[in-house]
């Protein structure tokens, strides 16, 4: 696959003012551009050259460093020229305009968003997962997210995917070789330890999936929805978790009508905590005015999208019929923490009580008692574990592919268990596993498989 070779240029640093700013150009062959920009200078590849950046009329725009990377030894795999000038928006615009003008005859144009990285992918400098990690690293909002994005960018994630694919290919190779010799099928699974190989792959995949799921949590955060009746202390709890006043806390029931979200970080995991309008009178919806009813409807919409629901109740009042009705409407698939607030009034101790129906936590939002217990439980219920192992800042797309691969391996295992041992189906499921995994790195390698088979087996067998 070859990338579009028309030269592209863009300001590579963030808009605004800074010490330095960079204009970057990438193209198959940038020598004519360099000659036009710096007629009397030879830029040595990978060396920084300090020089004046001249406008077409010879006047000096700025002084700075020119860096030249000769293809294929560059970020994009093409010739790359970087001009590092002073980081002012107008200076950089002028430098960019100068590059476009000097490169007009060569067809230098403005780069599309992500086009440098896209070229890096098309020129095999990065695979798909790594290219995605570039964007994730730039967007990372916590240190933990930075570390795991770097991990993916370095290729560590791609490497484990390749290793899995290799194992699947090995097994497929065995199975497909046997398919041509039906009389050998019977004890093939025994002889080759195919089941053993399969379960080792399943185990390895599960580990990757765990690490990727944890990483995905760092990337996207968790949606934690505060739900409960008016006045139980939802907004107070949001404030207590966030540590400052962002929601309006008032003693009048039904004040929080618009959605309030605050992103907090616990051990580097971003949690989007969503405050909602209090739910009441599920028994008698006619008794509520239109505005409040809309608020309550929105609450249920948020609750349906939650990763974790915090169901707040007033400990000084105890459980009510209304709370029961609210609980009944929660989806059984979404974890719920039952939070008993206002223990300063009820006299309970701050505590976590794991009961069959749910985890119960006793705390006081107003007095900041027991908030740490809740923070710890939130991470736990979200499935966050500090494994000490490297995490991959995976995307939903990667998780989906890993889950799909896992399902196909399960199917393969199922076929292996059947008495008639449908080896062709077994092989087919392995092929689908391989395709799913390859979609992560963007490598589609049905030809690879043939290559492996032909290189390992002599035709005459
Ligand atoms: P919301 O309607 O569920 O969002 O409840 P708010 O957070 O607005 O709180 C309603 C009232 O309960 C306010 O007067 C708060 O000061 C009070 N409140 C909230 N948490 C506590 C608590 O832990 N102890 C006590 N004593 N009062 C609280
Ligand atoms: Zn509120």
UniProtKB/TrEMBL annotation:
Cofactor: K(+)
Subunit structure: Homodimer. Heterotetramer of two MnmE and two MnmG subunits.
A cellular component annotation (GO) from this entry: cytosol
Cofactor note: Binds 1 potassium ion per subunit.
Location(s) in or outside the cell: Cytoplasm
Keywords recorded for this protein, A-Z: Cytoplasm, GTP-binding, Hydrolase, Magnesium, Metal-binding, Nucleotide-binding, Potassium, tRNA processing
InterPro entries in UniProt: G_TrmE, GTP-bd, GTP-bd_TrmE_N, GTPase_MnmE, MnmE_dom2, MnmE_helical, P-loop_NTPase, Small_GTP-bd
Binding-site positions, (6S)-5-formyl-5,6,7,8-tetrahydrofolate: 24, 82, 125, 461
Name this protein carries in UniProt: tRNA modification GTPase MnmE
Family: Belongs to the TRAFAC class TrmE-Era-EngA-EngB-Septin-like GTPase superfamily. TrmE GTPase family.
Function: Exhibits a very high intrinsic GTPase hydrolysis rate. Involved in the addition of a carboxymethylaminomethyl (cmnm) group at the wobble position (U34) of certain tRNAs, forming tRNA-cmnm(5)s(2)U34.
Uppermost EC category: hydrolase
Principal location class: cytoplasm
Transmembrane segments: none
EC number(s) reported in the record: 3.6.-.-
GO biological process per UniProt: tRNA methylation; tRNA wobble uridine modification
GO molecular function per UniProt: GTP binding; GTPase activity; metal ion binding
PANTHER family: TRNA MODIFICATION GTPASE GTPBP3, TRNA MODIFICATION GTPASE GTPBP3, MITOCHONDRIAL
Binding-site residues, K(+): 231, 250, 252, 255
Start and end residues of each TrmE-type G domain: 221-383
Gene: mnmE
Residues at which Mg(2+) binds: 235, 256
HAMAP family: GTPase_MnmE
Entry-linked Pfam families: MMR_HSR1, MnmE_helical, TrmE_N
PROSITE patterns for this protein: G_TRME
């Amino acid at each position: 696959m070859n990338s579009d070779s028309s030269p592209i240029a863009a300001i590579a640093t963030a808009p605004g003012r800074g010490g330095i700013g960079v204009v970057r150009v990438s193209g198959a062959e940038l020598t004519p551009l360099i000659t036009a920009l710096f007629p009397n200078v030879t830029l040595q590849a990978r060396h920084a050259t300090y020089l004046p950046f001249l406008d077409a009329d010879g006047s000096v725009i700025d002084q700075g460093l020119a860096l030249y990377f000769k293809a294929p030894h560059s970020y994009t795999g093409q010739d790359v020229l970087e001009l590092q000038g002073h980081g002012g928006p107008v200076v950089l615009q002028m430098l960019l305009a100068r590059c476009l003008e000097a490169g007009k005859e060569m067809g230098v144009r403005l780069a599309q968003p992500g086009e440098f990285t896209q070229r890096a992918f098309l020129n095999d400098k990065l695979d798909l997962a790594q290219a995605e990690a570039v964007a994730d690293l730039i967007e990372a909002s916590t240190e933990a997210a930075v570390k795991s994005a770097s991990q993916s960018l370095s290729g560590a994630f791609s490497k484990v995917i390749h290793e899995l694919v290799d194992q699947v290919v090995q097994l497929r190779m065995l199975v497909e070789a046997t398919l041509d010799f039906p009389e050998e099928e019977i004890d093939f699974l025994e002889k080759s330890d195919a089941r053993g190989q399969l379960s080792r792959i399943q185990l390895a995949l599960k580990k990757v999936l765990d690490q990727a799921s944890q990483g995905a949590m760092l990337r996207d955060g968790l949606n934690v929805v505060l739900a409960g009746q008016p006045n139980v202390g939802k907004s107070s709890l949001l404030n207590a978790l966030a540590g400052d006043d962002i929601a309006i806390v008032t003693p009048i029931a039904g004040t929080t009508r618009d959605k309030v979200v605050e992103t907090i970080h616990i051990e580097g995991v971003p949690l989007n905590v969503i405050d909602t309008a209090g739910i009441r009178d599920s028994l008698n919806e006619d008794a509520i005015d239109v505005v409040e009813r809309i608020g309550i409807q929105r609450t249920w919409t948020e609750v349906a999208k939650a990763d974790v629901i915090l169901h707040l109740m007033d400990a000084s009042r105890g459980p009510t019929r209304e709370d029961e009705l609210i609980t009944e409407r929660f989806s059984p698939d979404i974890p719920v923490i039952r939070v008993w607030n206002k223990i300063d009034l009820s006299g309970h101790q701050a505590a976590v009580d794991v009961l069959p129906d749910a985890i119960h936590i006793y705390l006081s939002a107003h007095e900041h008692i027991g908030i740490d217990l809740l923070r710890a439980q939130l991470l736990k219920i979200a499935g966050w574990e500090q494994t000490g192992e490297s995490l991959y800042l995976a995307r939903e797309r990667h998780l989906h592919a890993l889950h799909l691969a896992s399902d196909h391996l399960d199917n393969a295992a199922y076929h292996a268990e059947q008495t008639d041992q449908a080896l062709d189906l077994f092989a087919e499921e392995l092929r689908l596993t391989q395709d799913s995994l390859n979609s992560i790195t963007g490598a589609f390698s049905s030809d690879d498989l043939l290559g492996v088979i032909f290189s390992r087996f002599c035709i005459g067998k």
